[in-house]
Amino acid sequence: MTNKNPNITEGIEGEFVGHGLVFGKFMPPTNGHLYLINFARLSCRKLTIMVCSLPTEPIPGEQRYKWIKELFPDCNVVHHYIDIPQEPKGPDDVVFFETWRNSIYKHCPGEKFDALFASEPYGYKMANVMDIKFIPVDVKRDLVQISGTAMRKNPLLHWQYLHPVVRT
Q1: Residue 69 CA: distances (Å) to CA of 8, 44, 51, 87
Q2: What are phi and psi of 116, to 5 degrees?
Q3: Which residue, 44, 37, 56, 36, is CA-closest to 19?
Q4: Which pLDDT value is given to residue 144?
Q5: Which residue from 29, 59, 60, 94 has the highest number of Cβ atoms inside 10 Å of its Cβ?
């Protein structure tokens, strides 16, 4: 696995997004996650990062929340801890996406988002349900070729894809 450009230095071309949203488990936060967040951060006037967790996960949500907060002190970092469905029942499961939309706004009362930045296929549908713009970032994993799943399966093999804050 190679990184073509792991240190993003600019965001989207054109006008900045007012308020962006990135959410995920970040279990653990890999350089791929950091690339996504940095891209969003440099593309927005304000960025909210939502760290989603369940009590049964192998890396406690509170720890992941602290890592992201430390790595991105200039962003609004929120811990989403409500146990709601994690996968849609099918491609047209509108209830799933509406449940997530409602939960996101419950965790971010009074916030108005303009765009969702995501590297996962769910991003388009989630943004559509939230009635905001979808901005895909490195969906093919061409720039930082690592996933949280691969990292959890063999952390030592993928150690170089972890930020030093997370390695401790």
Answers
A1: 19, 17, 10, 26
A2: -110, 125
A3: 44
A4: 66
A5: 29
**Predicted pLDDT at 126:** 95
> If we measure between CA atoms, which residue out of 131, 101, 87 comes closest to residue 23?
101
Q: Is 117 helix (H, G, I), strand (E, B) or coil?
A: strand
Domain 17-167: CATH class, spelled out: alpha beta
- State pTM to two decimals: 0.84
Q: Per-residue DSSP letters for 20-83?
A: EEEEE--SS-BHHHHHHHHHHHTTEEEEEEEEE--TTSSS-HHHHHHHHHHH-TTSEEEEE---
Q: Please list the residues that pair with 50 across neighbouring strands.
A: 23, 78
Quick one: 154 exposed, middle or buried, by C-beta within 10 A (0-12, 13-18, 19+)?
Answer: exposed
